[in-house]
Amino acid sequence: MQQLITFAIFSLLVLLLCLVRPVAGRIFLGIFFLVMAIGVNVVLVLLSPDLFVGLGTNDALIPLYRWFFENIVAAPSLFGLLAAAYEVAIALLMLSKGRYVKWGLIGSIVFLIAITPLGVWTLANPILAVAMTYLLTKEYEWSLSETLRLPARPRRQQRWERRQPR
Fold first, then answer.
1. Which helix (H) or strand (E) holds 74?
2. In terms of residue numbers, what domain contains 136?
3. pLDDT tens digits, 79-134
4. Dihedral of the alpha carbons of 73, 60, 1, 110, in degrees to the nearest 10
5. Dihedral sign, CA of 141, 96, 156, 150?
């Protein structure tokens, strides 16, 4: 239960970030997915691939998940690497620009909702999905790399330049 409370607070803070600063929220979530893919899934595959089976069988909220992990996830290393590859792909899409960001956000929403029934500790995932749904309403003209290369200018000057005809 402590894990759920901690993750729920984290998710609410991320939701607030997305509401107040959508670009920063998108970048944070993209980096978060990269860290989770590499720092959790890949490390788990390397150190203890059988834990992937345990993720779906120990505390699953839906019996179908337990059955899936017991009978379908026969190669936990492959399953873990596929999960990590999916997370890396949606993270890179979220960190890009234009419609690719939207595809990354949609993919991450699907991922979060899909893993929510794994246990009580994932019940806060819909909060992050709501944050990403809000981010879908915004447009993203710059990728992360382009954002980092933007010169630091006062915010008013940036708004003024956007209003000027080209």
1. none
2. 2-163
3. 889 999 999 999 999 999 999 999 999 999 999 999 999 888 899 999 999 999 99
4. 70
5. negative
